[in-house]
TrEMBL record:
Pfam families membership: FCD, GntR
PROSITE patterns: HTH_GNTR
InterPro entries: GntR_C, TF_FadR/GntR_C, Tscrpt_reg_HTH_GntR, WH-like_DNA-bd_sf, WH_DNA-bd_sf
Keywords (A to Z) from UniProt: DNA-binding, Transcription, Transcription regulation
Location of the HTH gntR-type domain: 3-71
GO terms for MF: DNA binding; DNA-binding transcription factor activity
Highest taxon listed in the record's lineage: Bacteria
Name of the protein described by the UniProt record: Transcriptional regulator, GntR family protein
């Protein structure tokens, strides 16, 4: 019951911040004043503030008081890989989200990417070609390519989300039988070529083709006889 009450108090403090138009860095009432305002005990307020501080909503400055925090996606991103895996979110659903993200943003990248950025992507493709084994490239180089691809957007949230997807798929890689039909390095090279061409359709097609092998592999896993037996057993 206490946990539920502290969550409700946390919601009330959020509402207070919004209703009073408070901005990051603005002062909040003290614990005692909040307890009086919300008609709850100081213990519930203290627990709620601890939870809000962990999520960056409030900032507790020792000896100075309470202040509105600067919102960050950091705590959300930090816990997202665990939450998705704990809830057994299917990899096919995660791949769908990742494809939508990358296919949708690649044309935005084309508007701001520089010749230096393209040279960096070329260098990563050459690293892939030099270290390809059975059509597969080193995971860390593949991840670096996707980070470099979307870095020109200057959007740390996008880069963090890409890292989340990478973290989950890397942990699951030992149980995915990857059906490669094309060399992975050449798929990445095609993305760079499409960016240089300025052809928006070519860009989205190149990104989409890059995910085809993984999509096919996950579809095969779901449709395999063993998967069907497992579903029946559950």
């Amino acid at each position: 019951m206490r946990a539920l009450l502290s969550r409700e108090v946390g919601d009330a403090i959020r509402d207070y911040i919004v209703e009073h138009g408070l901005k990051p860095g603005d002062a909040l009432p003290s614990e005692g004043e909040l307890a009086t305002l919300l008609d709850v005990g100081k213990t519930s307020v203290r627990e709620a503030l601890r939870r809000l501080e962990a999520h960056g909503v409030v900032e507790v400055r020792r000896g100075r008081g309470l202040f509105v925090g600067t919102f960050s996606f950091g705590p959300l991103i930090e816990h997202l890989p665990y939450g998705l895996q704990a809830d057994n979110v299917p990899l096919r659903q995660l791949l769908q989200a990742r494809r939508a993200l990358e296919e949708g943003l690649v044309c935005e990248v084309a508007r701001v990417i520089t010749a230096e950025d393209l040279d960096r992507l070329d260098a990563l493709v050459e690293q892939m070609r030099a270290h390809t084994v059975d059509g597969r490239v080193p995971a860390e180089v593949d991840q670096a390519f996707h980070q470099a691809l979307f870095a020109p957007l200057g959007n740390p949230f996008v880069l963090q989300l890409i890292d989340v997807f990478w973290s989950i798929f890397r942990r699951a890689s030992d149980r995915i039988v990857l059906d490669l039909r094309r060399p992975t390095a050449e798929d990445h090279a095609a993305i760079v070529d499409a960016l240089r061409s300025g052809d928006r359709a070519a860009m989205t097609d190149a990104v989409a083709r890059h995910f085809e092998d993984l999509q096919r592999s996950l579809d095969a896993e779901v449709n395999s006889p063993l998967a069907g037996e497992a579903n029946e057993a559950s």
